[in-house]
Amino acid sequence: MKWTRRGLGALALGTSALLLAGCSGGGGNAGGGGGGDAVDGTGEVTGAIEIAWWGGDARNEKTNAVIDMFEEANEGVTANGQSADFQGYFDRLNVQAASKSLPCAVQLQGRQVNDYTSRDLLLPLDPMIEAGVIDVSDIPEAVVDTGRGPDGNLYFLPYGAAYDAVGVNTTLAQQAGVELPAEGYDWDDFVTFLEDAAENLPEGTRAIDSNGGRPNFFIGWTQANGKTLFDEDGKLGFTEDDLVEYWTMWEDLRAAGVTETAERTAEEPSGPDQGYFANGQLMTDTIPGNALTPVTAVLDGKGQGHEVTTIPYPSGAEGSGNALYPSGFAIPRSCDNVPTAAAFVNFFTNDLDAGLVFASDNGAATNTKVLEAQLADPALSETKKHELELFQRIVENDPPSIVFPPGYQATFEAAFRQAYEQVAFGRQSVEEAAASFIAEANAGLGS
């Protein structure tokens, strides 16, 4: 497992070392954790804290630069950083959670946060907002709410908001004789767009991947069509009939040759900048909103003259089909230096200079002033500008806030893909696979 510490480089640590990697001391400052729900983070900002995040070398460099800025702005503060790749990060975090030795500022994502709130490991941030320690005045309410748990409390402050988009190879679309879907298009419009394009696409290309097993698209479909993804108990909120309808749509497209084959989809390299869309073999596909820049770079490197763009997910009777997937920092109950941790969370999210240094590396900046400053930067690439402007459009449409229940990451996503593969490879009917998935998911969710 890779750890990155500022000034020390990468260290490989054993399990015993992980258990000792504590939420570092802060000299017993007022507002320390561990004593109930009403910790407001007030007190002297001084002493040491540990900060944890996931990411590669580029994100580590930017995050460490922001940590340096935070130390310079707060004399007497020492902030040490820990990072790992995404999977390794959560493996380590679970060890630290079990030993109540979580770092004082822990990066989380909306899809994982309730794995930790369900064990009462995190402090609500609402008292810190009320005390003026953390400022949310420049963050849209719909974005702030993505950091809330099932009880309505805010458990992490989103600093970056990822979203999914429909990537479109406009060169292939032009060759197929189709125009981009109009503003506010729905799923019926999207299916028609794909079917029309499939008739005239160049040989060796397809309109879209075989996407019935992609949770991203399904989440978008449920939101646009007024389906409930999860109920108040953290179980599935949609019905077996809903899932049959959705998978049947994709199976009809696959049978008609509109999508990639099941075999080709199963063999596709992982990563949006390595898949078939990035290689010019698909006219469209779902991609992370911040993947436009790397996908464009891959296609440019091939020299085929392909141009790409991104558009929002299809809408529906209930409005936007785009959900936000935020990343932000939480403060564990075990933290003994809450004032300094809260000051860091606030600084990372709201400081203008820090935001320009981090440059929306992990989702679009949630602070509107930081985002506007990035957009005004003349050095900003056109693709990055489009990514950030599309985020603004999505937020303006008041995207739904999804509370992902405990167990979502481990239970829902892999099982959803596997269940649809059973259909695509002819091993189960749509009805059989839907029933099996719902039973399996409900057995593991919400606990």
Automatic annotation (TrEMBL):
The keyword Nucleotide-binding does not apply. InterPro entries: Bact_solute-bd_prot1, SBP. Pfam families: SBP_bac_1. Keywords: Signal, Sugar transport, Transport. Residues 1-21 form the signal peptide. This is Multiple sugar transport system substrate-binding protein. The keyword Amino-acid biosynthesis does not apply. It comes from the Bacteria.
